[in-house]
Fold:
Amino acid sequence: MTTILAIETSCDETAVAVVQNRCVLAEAVASQIAQHQVYGGVVPELASRQHLEGINLLLQQVQKQTGLSWGDVDGIAVTCAPGLVGALNIGLAAAKTLAVLYQRPLVGIHHLEGHICAAYLTEPTLEPPFLCLLVSGGHTSLVAVRDGQTYDPLGQTRDDAVGEAFDKVARLLGLGYPGGPLIDRLAQTGNPHTFALPEGKISLPGGGYHPYDMSFSGLKTAVRRLVEQLPSPLPVADVAASFQYTVVQALTRRAIRCALAEGLTTLVVAGGVAANRELRQTMTTTAAQHGIRVIIPPMKYCTDNAAMIGCAGVLRLTQGHHSPLHLTSQSRLSLTEISTLYVKD
Ligand code: KG4
Ligand code: ZN
Structure:
């Protein structure tokens, strides 16, 4: 049994959890949505301040729920990259303090590895290899997860992340922040076939299109033009539904094509946009038609949380990894560079 205290502060959720192997013993999340909403997006300085205010309270709550002393855990996992540096630093400072105070190993976690590991909480018997479609506010990629939990990026967005596209289109439609859940809800009452929107394709130099890479900035521009041209009142539900349909088709087609070509029979969908109802439904039914098993964590483990960081922490610690106390936060770090976060026992 490996028990991990996990801390996540990479963006606008302060989260703490205790995870034992692939089981969540306790968790607490403080969302900052209300604070950022008035500005229409995440204000980094405000995010750091909110993390600083909230982190100790969450640590106390989680400690109470488990009845553990932090000296009882096997390690302290913390998101250290990628993310907002000021925000990451708050979690990192808290984790380092506890690691020194209780003489426990510090385990820096790559935020996207956390999102992938949310699938282990959902399906405790899951083991690599599998394909993961990572769809969050800052990242969109198709990654093959190989034996030994190594990552092989096979496709990615060439411009906007898909969550970013949801947020920008929501702003264009005057819906507010965060855009994803608002479009998701509104699209349910709209007709997805009202407007034909372009699915961004990446041309290859020799002709044809990249099978897995994607683009969302052209789609966002097409929605902007549509909004400018349409007479008022704007049919917001139909625009939202048409946009969401185009995105879901683009993601589903690439993920299924990639899984089939790689011979991977399990597909994990992870990250904030995996909370999208149409994506969950379309991916599940399309994959089933091709004999592919789909694992999508419940909504609360799709968006940012500390349980997924704890699960990644268990994995890294059992592989003999821990991080030096001079570990720093990084705004960008590729999944293929994860080993730079660790020293081996
Ligand atoms: O993974 P996440 O919580 O934070 C990052 O690591 O970026 O993802 C946040 C993104 C935001 O862009 C948000 O609008 C989007 O996930 N999102 C959704 C839904 N819920 C959250 N997008 C579409 N449909 C949703 N239901
Ligand atoms: Zn995230």
